[in-house]
Amino acid sequence: MTNKQSSALCRQLGHVFVQPQLLQRALTHRSHAPEHNERLEFLGDSVLGCVIAKYLYDNYPQLSEGELSRLRSNLVREDTLAVLAQQLDLGSQLKLGEGERKSGGFRRPSILADAMEALFGAVLLDGGFAAAEKTVLGLYVPYLAQVDAQTLGKDAKTLLQEYLQGKRIPLPNYSVVATQGQAHEQSFEVECAIPSLKISTRGKGSSRRNAEQQAAQTAYQIIQPTAVR
C-alpha cells in the first residue's frame, strides 16, 4: 500500500491514523503475515453493531424492535460490508498471501467484509469510540439514503404479501407447475398467480421455496417497478 493510497483511504474513512501501523494491520490478511487483522475484525464487528443499533434507534422511531433487529442484521452482514469495501476500492489495498492473490481473494466478499470490520476496529483503537462512530456513519448514512429501510432485508414473498395486504388485494396463489431431475437434485418451477391483478409469474429454483421467491420477486417488480432489488 503506497502513501498515496493510504492518504486516499484515510480521506474516505474520515480518519487520519496517529498509529499508521493499525491501518496496515487492518488491511493484512492472515495468509500474508502472523500479524493479521482477525483480532481487529473482532473488535470492529462489535463497534459496528453498537453504532448501527444506536443510529437506527435514534432515526427510525416508527420501527418495532423486530424491524430494527432485521434492519441492523441486514446492514452489518457480509454482503453489505463487501459493497462498502468495494466503494473504497479496498481489495486493491489488501495484503494477501500469494495463494489468496492468485485465487482472487481481493474480490472475495468474506475477505472484503472482514477487512472492513478490521478498519472499524483500527479506528476505534486509534481514535476512540467517537472516531469509530464517525467513520461507520460516514459510510453507512449515504448507503441508507439510497435504500428503503422499510423493505431492506425482507424477502420477496414478504414484500409482495405486505403490499397486497395494504391494498386489500387477495394474496397470491403459489403452485408447482413442473419439476425436473432426480429426487436428490430436483429443480422446481413455481407459478405465482394474482388473479385480481391479472398477474401470473414463474420462478425456478433448487427448492420449492427458492422458486416461490423468484416468482414473487418478478410479481413484485411488476407491481412496484421502482422497488429496490
Question: Any overview of this molecule?
Answer:
With 229 residues, this protein is mostly helical. It has 2 domains: 143 residues, Ribonuclease III domain (Ribonuclease iii, N-terminal Endonuclease Domain, Chain A); 68 residues, 2-Layer Sandwich (Double Stranded RNA Binding Domain), CATH 3.30.160. It is 57% helix and 10% strand. It contains 10 helices and 3 strands. A 3-stranded antiparallel beta sheet has the order 1-2-3. The longest helix has 22 residues. The mean pLDDT is 90.
Question: Which helices and strands appear, and what pairs or packs with what?
Answer:
Elements: H1 3-13, H2 20-26, H3 38-59, H4 65-76, H5 78-87, H6 98-102, H7 109-127, H8 129-145, H9 156-166, E1 173-180, E2 187-194, E3 199-205, H10 208-223
Helix pairs in contact: 2-7, 3-4, 3-7, 3-8, 5-7, 7-8, 9-10
**What is the number of E strands?**
3
Mean pLDDT level: 90
How many separate structural domains?
Answer: 2
- Gap between N and C termini: 35 Å
Helices and strands, in N-to-C order?
HHHHHHHHHEEEH
Look at the structure and name the CATH superfamily of the largest domain.
Ribonuclease III domain
**Biggest beta-sheet profile:** 3 strands, antiparallel
Count of DSSP-assigned helices: 10
Strand content: 5-15%
User: What helical percentage do the residues reach?
Assistant: 55-70%
Strand order of the largest sheet: 1-2-3
CATH-level-2 architecture of the largest domain:
Orthogonal Bundle
CATH topology of the largest domain: Ribonuclease iii, N-terminal Endonuclease Domain, Chain A
Give the class-level CATH name of the largest domain. Mainly Alpha
What integer value in Å does the Rg equal?
22 Å
Oligomer: single chain
Low-confidence stretches: none
Overall morphology? globular
